[in-house]
Amino acid sequence: MTTRTRAARSSYACSECGHRAAQWVGRCPGCQAWGTLTEQAEPARAAAAGGGLRRVAAGAPSTPARPIAEVALDSARARPSGVDELDRVLGGGLVPGAVVLLAGEPGVGKSTLLLEVAAKAAASLRGGSVLYVTGEESAGQVRLRAERTGALHERLFLAAESDLSSILGHVDALRPDLLIVDSVQTMTSPEVDGSPGGVTQTRAVTVALTALAKERGLPVLLVGHVTKDGNIAGPRVLEHLVDVVLAFEGDKHSTLRMVRGVKNRFGPADEVGCFELRDEGIVGLPDPSGLFLARFGATQASVVPGTAVTVVMDGRRPLLAEVQALVASSSMPTPRRAVSGLDSSRVAMLLAILERRGRVRLQDSEVYTATVGGMKVTEPAADLALAMAVASAKNDVALPPDLVVLGELGLAGEVRRVSGVRRRLAEAARLGFTHALVPPDSDAGSGTGMKVTEVSDVSQVLARIRRASA
């Protein structure tokens, strides 16, 4: 009796979610992504009675297995990059062999930041070098930016390449201590088909650079593009391949830039670094609260109605933020509501709470609310501060300049607890604030030296504003 072997056949796998299909379709049935199914050959199955896959022969291990307590830590310790705010997000610095992906919108300052990192790293290395590979600009363009930002150094090497094999040749010849690739979507691998920036090419380039980093203990920084939805361009597997994913955020109308940790295998993934983009380059802001306070250091006589100060948590970092409100009378049937830097739906809810629970008449008034310094505040801990700002503008009464307000508002008008009250008040006390309004049972403690007043209902706070206006 003869055995008949079945030939290997092809299947199609999605590069985004891994879903497999027997035939090619334009849209993945699993994740609904377009054009992500690629052909893959399935291994031939044995014709034996068991019908299982062919067994893989055992090979010699590359390194012997050791007890986990005997594994050396020298190769996994972070080394400072020279930019303190970036090291804060990375968890102390760059780990040898780590692959970091920095993604952001066009023009936000990704290349400027990494050029600064390259210059600082080259200056801190003893006899080492840094290789900066650019695929989007010419070498002359990068040189002009380096002169403008003061990022020139004799051990910083620049190569304008878009071919992966050429990059590997530069690495073999130079043996750098840090590799920066700007950007991964512009690089191509000669071993795979596809256009630059496509799913196949981006994945192949990232796999090759990741293998290079792990093999040589070389930290690699990759610049990534984002789509119009704000997601990282390329296959979803790109974020799984790298060790660290950083999101570079910023408004084009503001000089503030934030590096936010999205994924970090070597440290916390909720840290935030603050930078300011200037004409001479990008500068870290270890104390950015002054950018978000228009009345920082103001006196009672100089404070105008309609402003309140709160403390928001951006990751692990407490930041003081000022919310402003302007209430103006209107003869229109539907008064206007304008919001800048805040969640419009949450602002509408707070206005309804003030109208119904706080008895603040707003139905015939236009209400404008905004933040200072281009900051975006979406945390519910700023609810009470925004409510006080609107009531202050309505009653034309300025709040004390040394007052900070914390609390989330419920639909019944109650003030709810928020997390990290002690850290928030410690930051406010460091900047000179002496009085705080907090939710009940906040366990604020007396270590900050501030006068802490607990409020349980929004009507209590509004009553104080009305008494001050009387």
What does this structure look like?
The chain has 10 helices and 21 strands. It folds into 3 domains: 10-41; 77-286, 3-Layer(aba) Sandwich (Rossmann fold), CATH 3.40.50; 292-469, Ribosomal Protein S5, domain 2, CATH 3.30.230.10. The chain has 470 residues and is an alpha/beta fold. The model is unreliable at 1-7 and 44-53 (pLDDT under 50). The protein is elongated, with a radius of gyration of 28 Å. The chain has helices at 84-90, 110-124, 139-149, 164-174, 199-216, 237-241, 344-356, 383-395, 421-430, 458-469; strands spanning 10-14, 20-21, 37-41, 99-104, 130-134, 156-160, 178-182, 220-224, 244-250, 256-264, 272-278, 281-284, 307-314, 317-329, 337-340, 365-371, 403-405, 408-409, 415-416, 435-438, 451-454. The protein has a 9-stranded mixed beta sheet with strand order 6-5-7-8-4-9-10-11-12, with helices on both faces. A 4-stranded mixed beta sheet has the order 13-14-16-15.
Question: Topology, please?
Answer:
Layout: E1 10-14, E2 20-21, E3 37-41, H1 84-90, E4 99-104, H2 110-124, E5 130-134, H3 139-149, E6 156-160, H4 164-174, E7 178-182, H5 199-216, E8 220-224, H6 237-241, E9 244-250, E10 256-264, E11 272-278, E12 281-284, E13 307-314, E14 317-329, E15 337-340, H7 344-356, E16 365-371, H8 383-395, E17 403-405, E18 408-409, E19 415-416, H9 421-430, E20 435-438, E21 451-454, H10 458-469
Parallel strand pairs: 4-8, 4-9, 5-6, 5-7, 7-8, 15-16, 17-20, 20-21
Antiparallel strand pairs: 1-2, 1-3, 9-10, 10-11, 11-12, 13-14, 14-16, 18-19
Helix pairs in contact: 7-8, 8-10
Motif (RadA KNRFG motif): 263-267
InterPro entries: AAA+_ATPase, DNA_repair_RadA, P-loop_NTPase, RecA_ATP-bd, Ribosomal_Su5_D2-typ_SF, Ribsml_uS5_D2-typ_fold_subgr, Rubredoxin_2
Function: Plays a role in repairing double-strand DNA breaks, probably involving stabilizing or processing branched DNA or blocked replication forks.
